[in-house]
Structure formats: C-alpha cells, structure tokens
C-alpha cells in the first residue's frame, strides 16, 4: 500500500510539473465591479482557468510588491495574461522590461487583453517587432551597417485620427540613415455604448480557435475601429464587426524574438465579457498554445 501511495504521489508531482504556469495580471480598476461584482476581472478569468486541467494559475495586480512581477514570479511563469487601462503610466519600467526581455528570449509568452493595447509590455514588444520588420525589409548585405533613428517611443494615451499615417513606418534620412516611427498601438475610434460585437473565426484550425464556432456574439462590449496601429500580425484568428459598420482584428498573434504575443480585443471593464464562455475559451486556448512552447524551454 505504501508503495502505491508513493507511486501516486510521484505521478501527481510529474503531472503538476508539466502544467502550463499562468499568471493573470490585473490593474483591478474599481469600475470592474459593475460587471464582476465581488471579484475583479482578472480574478474572474483566473477562477475559470484554474478549473481547467493542465494549467497552474496565479494572480497578481499593480498594487502588489514589485507590481506582482518579481524576477522569481516571472521565472515561474510560462504565460502572462495582462489587463490594464487607466494606470499605464504607473507601471514600473524595470518590471515591465523584465517581462519584455523574457518574451524576447522565449522564456515567457504574453496575452494582452482589451485596453492592454497600451500596456507597457505590449507596446515595447510591438516596438521590437517593428524594428525587426523594418530591418528585414533591407537587403541582407545592408542590415549590419544600417543606421536607425527611432521616434514615438512613448505613445501612451495619444489617439490618432483616421487620416493619420499608419504606424509603424520607415522614412529615409539624409546621409543614408533611416527613421522608424514606432507603432502608436491605438486606433482612431472607439465607442463604449455596450452595442453587441460579432466575432468571426477566420482561422478555424488554429489552436486558439479550438472549440469555438464560426461566428459568435458578445452581447455587450466596447467598440474599437480599425486601423489598429501595430505591426502586421503573423496570424489574425478573429475579426470583430459591429452593426454600425466598424470592424477590428480582434485576435492577433505575433512572433517577437523567440517568444509569442497574442492580443484579444474584447474585455471592457464595465461589461461582463469574461463571464461568457467563448471569451474565456479564447484565453484558455491562447494560454495553452502560447504556453506549450514556453514551458518546453
């Protein structure tokens, strides 16, 4: 009997060690209470994920020590799910850069939700992807000697109009140097009227789309309207449309360095988006897809 118990314990430890380690990080904006009651938005997502097999889930928040993103915590994380909105400028640069460097090294994956389009880790990773894309546009023989000027490295809370040039973009400078205008990581229009969003699964065979229908609705949501000022995604898994004619690339995947980033647009804090099965399934699928590669390193 004792040997059977030891074997069961060993198998349990082995299974636990193979779990994808997920950290759900939330600004915990008070307005979230309008949709989620006693739990915050991030806690609601975590409560769902921790019920799913193969995932080991923890939560963190902006007001935690080291903003919940200490080196030890990040080293014990495969996938970081990130929600932020009003307090972006309070995000500690060193802690956020620790996230960025781990993603670039392939040691961590990032899932950015809704208003985290302006979260510092997402912005920095979009900047790094933009730099890599710009360099790849040059003939290989010119890349090592290319001289770059980077502008727009602090895009936070600056909205661009419809007529603005899509960022990122490259321009030549005198003397052969090049100027890269980094991505604004925003869009020209938004509308928080609670109108329904209609999601379309563009890549039904993609792991992030597993178990999701070809078309599904979010009854109440905030609208974001294209163009989204980010580098071209490697994959657009979902597109979202609204009855007034707007549309948005609402589920995008990028390879950045050796790591991956997934942006999922729905998730406004005053609507119960993450009480709905489909958005929760997207986050779960994304955690498994992104985390599988990270956990294997």
Features:
297 residues, alpha/beta, nine-stranded mixed beta sheet, 8 helices, 25% strand, disordered N terminus
Short characterization:
The protein is α/β, with parallel strands linked by helices and 297 residues long.
Give a verbal description of the structure.
With 297 residues, the chain is an alpha/beta fold. Helices cover 29% and strands 25% of the residues. The protein has eight helices and 14 strands. The chain has helices spanning 2-17, 33-36, 41-49, 71-75, 93-104, 120-136, 140-143, 277-295; strands spanning 20-26, 55-61, 79-83, 109-113, 148-151, 169-172, 178-181, 189-191, 197-201, 215-218, 223-225, 235-241, 247-256, 259-264. It has a nine-stranded mixed sheet with strand order 2-1-3-4-14-13-12-9-10. Strands 5-7-6 form a three-stranded mixed sheet, with helices on one face. Strand 3 (79-83), helix 5 and strand 4 (109-113) form a beta-alpha-beta unit. Helix 5 packs across helix 6 (120-136). The longest helix is centred in the last third of the chain and has 19 residues, at 277-295. It is globular. Residues 1-15 have low confidence and may be disordered.
